[in-house]
Specification:
alpha+beta, 10-stranded mixed β-sheet
Length: 430
């Protein structure tokens, strides 16, 4: 592949297109510049899929088609799409749901192992097996590396083993976007996989060097060892290594049972051939922070419905500290204890994580509330879009509540832009 040739992408669980914005920009401009500066378009999305089960109107898919066009876009259950029908691609991306990944049964040798029905990870695996793209970039909530509670890390081990068995090397990192100057404190685990036939796979030398400086994630988002005593571990991580043993059924039954609930995966790591090296790292960043006040719209753009009005005492109660006597259904008395939330939210730091229930007028403990010209108000959808580094009014065709829901499900686009730039550069050995 020549240096000028774009990498072809398929985007799964696309939502309203956060991965695509990060890789391709918007109207030729980059998210990191607030869509003011040109981005070199090194990626081309050739197929996308967004389908929300159990709803009549596919709101996210509709927004996606409105903004990117309907060509190459699928709005059907990915589990029903024949993997071989999906276009050839170089990079598969997606923010897949966090589910129970345990394997319930083992089929005959000819069919191999089958996971639980409806768990979307297995659709990703089937596509990888059929199409064998060079690269895979996945995003999930950071608790994935420690779930389930009684067998910490089992679900992540199943995913890693699945990728290893398909001839992929894997690296991962839990990234908080705000640690690298972005507007939102949103922690997510990013998983990069490289097929053994890819140019990047062949660059791998040692786990410590890869985690600390040579891997795609390290080049995009620099790190250092969390403890000074561990600095040498970047040179030799053998003491922080283990093998993922057994088939997927055995992993489901036995992984990490002997650790008494202690997690085995740190926030950074690499796996090759089912051998894992993992270490706790912390971000290395000296740039500016983007604060909540930096992404607010002007006061005169906020309509009356976003101000708290007569419900302000209810808001204060929900966000305040509590120690209340309550009664269980069996009559047993217990005390419900809850710490305080900031009220209003602090403007001089990156904002808290957006949740899917951010929209709507109903008082809530977790929705953002700010003070604006002496009055309390909720955040408007455009501010939520800015927190995820989307273009202003990108989702304006939907209702305010839906727009907030989209942003609660979305990722911070700037993280994908950074990873995409690093991947393309390494792919081309420049």
């Amino acid at each position: 592949m020549s240096k000028k040739e774009k990498l072809k992408v398929i985007e799964l669980f696309a939502g309203v297109g956060g991965f695509r914005l990060g890789l391709e920009g918007w109207k030729g401009k980059s998210s990191s510049s607030g869509y003011t500066k040109r981005i070199i378009k090194n990626y081309e999305t050739v197929w996308s899929n967004q389908w929300e089960p159990g709803v009549k109107v596919q709101h996210a898919s509709d927004v996606y088609k409105e903004m990117f066009g309907s060509e190459g876009h699928s709005n059907e259950d990915i589990g029903t799409v024949p993997p071989k029908s999906i276009p050839k691609h170089d990079l598969l991306v997606g923010g897949f749901p966090c589910q129970d990944y345990s394997v319930a049964k083992q089929l005959g040798k000819s069919k191999g192992i089958e996971g639980k029905k409806g768990v979307l990870w297995w659709s990703i695996r089937d596509i990888l097996e059929a199409k064998k793209p060079k690269y895979v970039l996945l995003e999930n909530v950071d608790r994935l590396i420690k779930s389930p509670a009684k067998q910490r890390g089992r679900d992540f081990a199943i995913i890693l083993a699945s990728l290893a068995d398909l001839d992929y090397m894997v690296e991962w990192r839990v990234i908080n976007a705000a640690d690298y100057g972005m507007p939102q404190r949103r922690r997510r685990v990013f998983i990069f996989a490289y097929h053994k036939k890819s140019s990047i796979y062949k660059k791998y030398a040692s786990p410590g060097e890869w985690i600390s400086k040579d891997g795609v994630i390290a080049k995009a988002f620099p790190v250092q060892a969390a403890k000074k005593s561990q600095l040498e571990l970047f040179k030799n991580l053998d003491i922080n290594s283990f093998n993922i043993e057994g088939d997927l059924v055995e992993i489901t039954k036995n992984f990490n049972k002997e650790k008494g609930g202690k997690g085995v995966f740190e926030n950074s790591g690499v796996m090759i051939g089912r051998k894992v090296w993992t270490i706790k790292t912390e971000p290395k960043y000296e740039g500016n922070q983007t604060r909540l006040k930096d992404i607010l719209v002007s006061h005169n753009e906020v309509t009356e419905e976003f101000y708290l009005g007569e419900d302000i005492e209810k808001w204060k109660y929900l966000k305040g500290a509590k120690k209340e006597e309550r009664k269980k259904s069996n009559g047993e008395i217990f005390y419900y204890v809850e710490g305080p939330m900031s009220f209003p939210d602090k403007l001089d730091r990156p904002m808290r994580t957006i949740i899917t229930s951010e929209g709507g007028v109903t008082p809530s403990r977790f929705k953002h509330v700010i003070e604006d010209h002496g009055e309390y108000r909720r955040l408007v959808p455009t501010e939520l879009e800015r927190a995820n580094m989307f273009p202003d009014d990108f989702t304006k065709s939907a209702s305010d509540t839906k727009r907030s829901f989209f942003m609660g499900n979305a990722l911070v686009v700037g993280v994908i832009e950074g990873l995409g730039k690093a991947l393309f550069k390494m792919h081309n050995n420049s």
